[in-house]
Design brief:
This protein is of the alpha+beta class. Helix content is 40%, strand content 24%.
Length: 106
């Protein structure tokens, strides 16, 4: 991820989260400004963030903490096109000895 892509990467994460809100427990939901602060202050500094761009626009993101896939989101409307698979393949190349995945429990 390039620094100038951060706003769109955050948007991909937020838009994907919005689609999940109806299925997430109340304690897993956070107001947008609180989420932005956490994303910028916590996630970005401790992870490597990889993106997939289509037509010059970030449409998928993956945050990795070592061999752990901490976040992987594809923007609504761009799912089912193999973007997540591209990111998973990148993770496998980075960590050929294995990966861990963190996910919400719904």
């Amino acid at each position: 991820m390039r620094p100038e892509e951060l706003p769109r990467v955050f948007d991909v994460w937020q838009l994907s989260q919005a689609e999940l809100l109806g299925r997430l427990r109340t304690d897993q939901r956070h107001p947008p400004e609180e989420a932005r602060k956490w994303f910028c202050d916590q996630l970005v500094p401790r992870t490597q963030i990889w993106v997939v761009e289509c037509d010059g626009r970030v449409d998928a993101m993956m945050a990795m903490d070592g061999a752990e896939i901490d976040r992987l989101y594809v923007a609504p409307g761009h799912q089912g096109r193999g973007l997540g698979e591209i990111l998973l393949d990148k993770a496998k190349r980075l960590c050929p000895d294995g990966l861990r995945l963190v996910t919400h429990q719904i």
